[in-house]
Amino acid sequence: MNKKGLILSIFISLIVILSSGSVFAEDISNANSDDSASSPIANDAVYGEITTSSNYTVHTGSNSSTIQNIINSMHDGDVLNFEKGEYKDICIYIDKNITVNGNGAQLIGYQTPGINNTNIPDIVKNTTKTGGYGISNFATVYILKTSNVKLNGLTMVSLNSTTYSNAVLYAYQSKNLEIINNTIIGSSWGIYLQTCVNTTINQNTIKNQATTGILNFGSAKSIIKNNKITNAVNHGIDIRHGTGPNVTVFNNTVIGSKEGIYLMHSGGHTVYNNTLINCTISSITCYGSSNIYIYNNTMFKSRMGVLLGSGFSNITIGENNYKLANLPYPPTFVYYVGIADSAYQSPQSVSGTYSDSSTYSPEYANKIDIEAPKDIVIDYSGILKPTGTTYTVPVGTASEDIQKMIDSMKDGDTLSFEKNGIYENICIYIDKNIKILGNNATLIGYETKGVNNSNIPLKVWKKTNEGGYGCVYFSVLYLFNTDNAVVSDLNIVGKAPGYNPNTVGTTTDEYKTTSIYSESNKNITITNCDVKGSSWGIFLQYNKNAVIANNNIHDQYTTGLINFGSANSIIANNTVTNAVNHGIDIRHGTGPNVTVFNNTIIGSKEGIYLMHSSGHKVYNNTIIKCTLSSITAYGSGNEAIFNNTLSGSRIGIIVGGGYYNVTIGSNNYNLDRLPFPPSFPYYIVQADNKYQTPDKAQGTYYDSAKEPKAVIIVDDITMYYKNGTKLHIALKDNKGYNLADTPITVTINGVSYNKTTDKNGAVEMNIYLKPGVYTATVAYAGNKTIGANSVDAKITVLPTITGNNITKMYQNGTHFFAAFVNGQGKALANTKVTFNINGVFYTKQTNDNGIANLNIMLRPGHYILTAYNPVTCDEQGFSVDVKSLIEASDLTKYYLNASRFQATIYNKDGSLAVNKEVTYNINGVFYTKTTDENGVASLGISLRPGNYIITTIVDGLAMGNNVTVMPTLVTKDLDMKYLDGSDFTAQTLDGQGNPLANQNVSFNVNGVFYHKVTDKDGIASLKIRLMSGEYIITSYWNNFQTGNTIKIA
């Protein structure tokens, strides 16, 4: 017997002596310390309540089957110890309560699951019906339906990271797991917990996952602490699904994921004291999660702090340390909190017009009024045609010699580089209206400005008061103060080195570098250029009407193309690749009404960035794999975004920081998402001003669909005018408690009234509205704990005067009647009331039923009758239309034609008056006529040409009309000079005003008669040869004569 057996025998004897009964071990086996891993150190012995566990050792180099056999031979409570070393092609499972001490051992998984999954143990992959666990995920290590497993000190590696369902460590339906001090490398998922309970994941190093570092899927009450997760592409730590699951995440460090900590469709989590670094979309995301507390986290170098997505509720954000990604100048603002509300979580629902809710109302309107863009035609044949004198730059010409050549040129000249030529150490400027035709030449800039700016032309950097341009940017090519300048077909390489974005400041030379710098130019064209390197590729500042088209811009460490305060630019058909921050950046200036279309942008943080400017149209662009958003509108407005293809970014469009009237039309969204478990895209994220400081970011947040809204109680009311009825309003929280001393707004009839609730959460309002039906909108703006709400109530104000509009014939027996009541609707009997019509007041007394009447004897016309209630001070207006007994129209006729004046006559009951005598008065003469069977009386008009009033008189009513008699012989006075050749003319017309040819017209002037015949236009002409003086000429035709004056100077 060895030493271990001897000690065990003595121990058993003592127990036998001290006990009243005995426990015998029948299957005790002995193993010495030299047993191999395939002959494990074994076996617990149990006596009463005393348990001993066995230790098993896995020797370096053991294969997967050997390790699995050892695990299969173990019992609950045993300990598995790995020797330090490397173990290849490992795929093992643990389905019992054991402790695994890795001791620095490295387990390297298979590269593939094998043909027909032969590299996965059968029990793992077999269905539950056949005695397996039915697991479809491929992992290096599985923990399956067990409890109290401790995994410590292992390095676990998965060589397969391309298959989405792969994991390094996969735990399924297990309890009380401890995963401590391990290193997890590779795969799609590092640690994948599925429906586990009470797991502790502590002090692990997890890196290089294609999807997620730690996935806690439906696993309740996990504690995830003190882990370091690096380069997990999608999420560092992902907590999702399940009722609860009340996970605590603290003291972890996540570096380089899209979203550092991702909380989805679950609740009850606490996230604190974590450090999140360089997460490209957000440090922390809550998507459809609830009852979350986020505080004391450090968020470093992500552009967005906390992103809240679709269906979130009760997300409390406490004080956090925000060190978010921001460039110093021009500013690119950070987003402390961004919201992707469930109301806009489909390509269809995202369309509409948006404004920042902090400042503008309404914040959203379901309208898409986008004017179709006009065709933009650019005449490249004219633009690129050489003009003036052409200066050719030989290959290898030095920068200062090129500058001298430019300085010698005149407006309208052309500078031509040799085809495919290479020119190094170039820094030149243009300040005259010339064309540069590059012919595919390459201009390579200096790496530095040189000592005291020696590599930059003096005029570029000298101060303006010294005759220079005062430019602080270092560029290869500058353009200043030109009009219609052209730059084409050049390859421009900016060699200025990059900068450290963690330390760069506004005066850092590396930040202020650009390949093409254009300032204060008009109508400039930059086309067909390849622009590489620098902080900014093309930098437009304070230009007007620039055309930037067909350029290839790439590898900038800030922005590809910036349009700074440059109005009415056209940016079209450019390709921008790998510009770190923004592909195309439009900012500042009044307007500037920039058109951005048909561009392709690949691989920036934000593809197109519209900031603090307005009036832009962004359409037909293709934006691919931008890490934060495809398009951002920050503090910009009155712009339209439509017909773009947004592909591969997680966020389609961000609107932030004071945006207004941003209209989003139909776009093609193909946003970044994972198939399962889902990571949803965000079609639009709103980062409103009210969240745009660390202090403002603190509070509790709800999705609009789940926000606990205030309860507003207000009843419809029906009342008589000014009878003292009040509008009663009660404001409560979502739990029914009164909201005292709380401001609300009541809007009635277009007027808003600001009110504050009393100690009982109530407001009362007197109603002094005129009779009518009104909508009262009671609105509560909400706060950080309870959401906004608004409720409509119907207010019906009944009049205390009622009556009907009347239409009557002139002086018939129709009266106007009105009924009067008091504020309670009781009739005002035997009360004096007042009527006002046509400016005259009449006092009448009501009868026993409160009814008063007024006889209407007014002339035909439209009148407003106002009735006044002396008790309620109500006044009501009614229409009174008095119809005429005479219906006639003005008459215009030619002299002696057949036209007659006609009037239709009515009786006072409205019927046609047949065989009724009618009197006409025209030109002082009275005529009597009788109406026919249609009630019509007519009068022939034979008066000389002129304007007359005809009065029709019947039954005491007289109505006037105009009668105009037009002449059939048309003449006019003549002013002329002696013998200047002037003719006096007369034109003859028929009864319809048409010219009459071949008519004999006579003229009498100065006592002499002349006879003339009209021409085809009805005109007879008389040549005037009289001496100077004034004469009367009389024209005669068709028994008509008319006189005119001829004045001869």
Automatic annotation (TrEMBL):
Q: Cite the InterPro entries for this sequence.
A: Beta_helix, Ig-like_fold, Para_beta_helix_rpt-2, PbH1, Pectin_lyas_fold, Pectin_lyase_fold/virulence
Residues covered by the Right handed beta helix domain: 170-321, 512-623
Coiled-coil positions: none
The signal peptide here is none
SUPFAM superfamilies, from UniProt?
Answer: Pectin lyase-like (SSF51126)
Family annotation (Gene3D superfamilies): Immunoglobulins, Single-stranded right-handed beta-helix, Pectin lyase-like
| Pfam families in the record | Beta_helix
Name this polypeptide is given: Adhesin
Query: What species is this protein from?
Result: Methanobrevibacter smithii
Q: What taxonomic classification does the UniProt entry list for its organism?
A: Archaea, Methanobacteriati, Methanobacteriota, Methanomada group, Methanobacteria
